[in-house]
Specification:
alpha+beta, 2 domains, 8-stranded antiparallel barrel, DUF995 domain-containing protein, signal
């Protein structure tokens, strides 16, 4: 049987190992989580994005045409990409969000906070 001090030592060692592993995984995920401008463009071009922003009742459905235009119900805009970001312009200067892609899921972040999320669907579902 382990003494009380030996048990504390084992627990502290395990806690340190788990913390180190979590930091390593977190660092690896952050290093791989910023898609390139081309990866974002490939994911969204000729796709509709159905989701919502962080505000209540902010659901939307937008189509991102290959020519860089956005088509929504009753509005249009423009989209562009750059490393790790997608930018949206709706008649004013662009607003850019950090992008995370996971299959058809896309999350938009600003200042580290999730501002929007939804699913990318092939083709134009806005029509």
């Amino acid at each position: 049987m382990l003494t009380l001090n030996a048990k504390k030592s084992v627990y502290l060692t395990l806690a340190a190992a788990v913390t180190s592993a979590a930091l390593l995984v977190s660092g690896a995920a952050n290093a791989n989580s910023a898609p390139s401008a081309q990866e974002i463009s490939d994911a969204v071009s000729d796709h509709s994005y159905q989701g919502s922003m962080s505000e209540p009742n902010s659901g939307f459905n937008e189509y991102y045409a290959p020519d860089g235009t956005i088509h929504g119900k009753g509005y249009t805009g423009e989209w562009t990409t750059r490393a790790g970001e997608m930018c949206f312009a709706y008649g004013e200067g662009p607003t850019c969000y950090g992008v995370s892609l996971d299959g058809p899921s896309m999350v938009l972040r600003m200042d580290g906070e999730i501002k929007g999320s939804g699913m990318l669907i092939p083709g134009n579902t806005v029509k």
